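Bench log, entry 3. Co-assembly request; chain sequences pasted below exactly as received.
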Amino acid sequence: MKTLKYIFAILFLSATFVSCSDDDENTPAEINPVEGLNMIYEIPATDHTVQIYSEKQNLEVGYNEISIRIKDMASDKYVANAAPSWMPMMHMETMEHSAPHSMLTNTEESTVYKGHVVFQMASNDTEYWEMILNYSLNGQQKEETLRVSVSQPADGLTKTQVFMGTDDTRYVLAYVNPKEPKVAVNDLQAVLYKMESMMSFPMVENYKITVDPRMPGMGNHSSPNNEDLTYTTATKMYDGKLSLTMTGYWKINLKLMNSSGETLKGEDVTEANPESSLYFELEF
Amino acid sequence: MKVFIPVFPIKGMLMGWLWFALICGCFTTQVYAQETPADSLKLIQLNEVVVISAGRQLDHQKQRKPLSTLDEFLESSRSIKMVKRGAYAWEPTMNDMASERLAITIDGMQIFGACTDKMDPITSYVDVSNLSEAEIGSGQQGAAFGNTIGGGINLKLDKSNFKSTGWTGSLESAFETNNAMRVFGGELSYSEEKFYFNVDGIYRKADNYKAGGDEEVKFSQFEKYNFSINSGYKLAEDKSIAATLIYDEANDVGYPALTMDVSLARAVIASVSFNQDTLFGNFSNWETKLYFNTIKHVMDDTQRPDVPIHMDMPGWSETAGFYTQAKLNKEKHHFFFKWDGFYNKSYAEMTMYPTNSNEPLMFMLTWPDVRTKNVGFYAEDHIPLKNASLKLSTRLAYHSNTVADDFGLNSLKIFYPEMDRTNTLFLKSFSAQYHKMLSDFHFNGGLSYGERAPSVSEGYGFYLFNSFDNHDYIGDPGLNTEGSVDANLSVTYKKPIFEITAGANYFHVFNYIIGMVDSSLSTMTIGAEGVKIYTNLDYAQLFNASLSGRYSISNAFKLTGRVSYHRGVDDKGENLPLISPLSYRSAIDFYKNQFSASLSIDGAGVQTNYNPTYGETKSAAYATLSASFGKRFFINDNDLFLKAGIENIFDTNYSTYTDWNNIPRMGRNFYLTISYSIN
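Structure output for the full assembly:
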């Protein structure tokens, strides 16, 4: 009978062992609205400072998510009604142009203003980016101009495409998510702007971007259950699904189609044509 | 063959009938009580027992090749055929069904290979040095060992079992010319009434073998050693404990039929058991065992000259389990009850090294840490009747699979977004086997139903490359339970010097699991033709028939022969893969005055029923001739046994339907075995 007891004990133990999970409970910590972000610039003014935050260590070519806070030195508090706006400007040797960017809006935390900007090119010694910020403080309209440095992403991967479509329009397509790709079906997100003029980059709605991930190192292996990028009004971005069957280097072949289904850029991947001219690159 | 059997009515009726029969069997003892017990009639429990025990001196005469690999022993059995991917680690098949459809245990212990490509059937983790016999049960006759469709094989370990033999020992060595295989083995035993222990070890090393016509088969080398220890102690007159430990390691195992070799295949198999002669007064032969085994299997292609991409594929499989079993004799009923369970953890990964070394490594989980729990209850009842006997048996099991690794779960969700982490199944098996003796005739007939759960690869495999049909395979966690109705019938005419048996069995397998091409999917393996998804066919049908005979020409000469026919088709009448063509075997054995000799022929007809869709090509007819000679000497009470032989005398270059990629089998081979035992 003792043996039986042991058997029961072992069965019980194995059962409990299996059912144990290591999910951590999310305990709400004290709220820091810029938790996990890096303050990449701080603009000191007489009675206030402007803080600029990014997830990255510095501004890079491509999609940058930016958070801005304005601190009133007198009250030592962050301002909630500054209604800021911004304008990125590239000063090239012979010309100037802006970059696609969203509006700055309040987040759940009213003192943090969020938006994104897509830099098309890196800055260097002679060609530089400026960020012009407008905001109100204590009823007064303010403007600050900040010279920022924009570098190529360190991984050297293409995640931003600036191209001329067959409709003779110049487009800017930038990769947004997943920031940390997984071997799974990932939520793919991108932003699409068109260049109306040097200074105007309106968002393009209701186009479609087909998604065909490939591994050139594995005989152009592909994956199932990808979903094309389509425009979502709520996020003002293009959302789709990206299946990645293993880690490694992936080329996400894309094809941009307008609302009437005409291809503006990119080709289908076939035996003869192993890649599209419109693509993103991923490594993980 | 093409009779369509509707699934539910037959299943339901059959189960109902079997339940009824089983229950009636338990309570109708009085009805048969007056009948005389047919003691002379041995109950047919198992279809076959293959005697192995290489170390046991007395058995040597009966074996044509005493130190051959376990694979060769199993292949010599009537019911087993071996699928070969190289010279080593062959995969047993029974009734034309392989690992997933068989229950293969070692001394009752469930063990699962750690290789996603089936390069390590569990029979590769033991050696002839530590086995006494292989118990083989066809169809549901093998259900005592686990859930099965095709049958069960239990490899029994060799134990002294409290015989008063004192110290004994033996040394063995063998050499084979074809692949320069060297075998060294030894064992030492001590056994008395209260205590015993056995230690044995064996080492094998072989180079590449040569097929007929001196054609070298590259990457067919292997090296392996196996060490085992087992011991028992009597706690009281009717109580004893026993423990076993097996360590098996193979290195540098070549697989000519695959693009990869194995650098390490290691198993540690341990168990403790408790035996008591009686339990609760009525039960007898109570045995309880707890066991654990862990397997590591590492595939590697660093020795291969031309691979499109280098990869590492290690796999791990750990199993813990128990069983407790007892017999109960009540009136005419001979019950046997067994409660068993196991918990297995299967994990395998693949890392590929990109040609451009700046790119990150490519990693995937090919087995996503699947945890399998299975708890089963098995019961059987033998009822001797007048010149007849009836055996009823059932197995009911709870089976669940859980994907423990999130990485693996997310990988599979690419294909099955709605899949659950855990799948639970209830598996049933029922069987009735009847044996009737009419003067010199024996009739055996049986009807059974059995179910099995999809294997880890079938349910959860992720891009497993199969070089047989050159496809990547992906599992389906939503597969249905595979069930099979099988019927068997055999007639034996038996005289002291003469015996002939004609037998046949038929399996109607519902939800037959097999890989089907999904042309929408892109291959992972470079050079693969396509991707297959494990799928349930509505049904498949398998039929096996055989005729075998034995004739004792004189006291010294014995003639045996066997011819078998096999057929397997799917629900569209297409051929199933890996179904044997007509095959035959015949031998004449001589034994007199400690001298033995044999001449045997083995062959098969043309494989007319093959299926190119599954990567099969028509394998040609072949026949090989082999001979052996043995002599036993007595030296001061000790035994010296010499055996020499020649296989494939005419150096035929051939391959069989089971040989992957038609890799030819071994050509002419001379072998010599020496064993010396100290009594």
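The longest strand of chain B covers residues 362-385. The CA atoms of residues 26 and 333 of chain B lie 8 Å apart.
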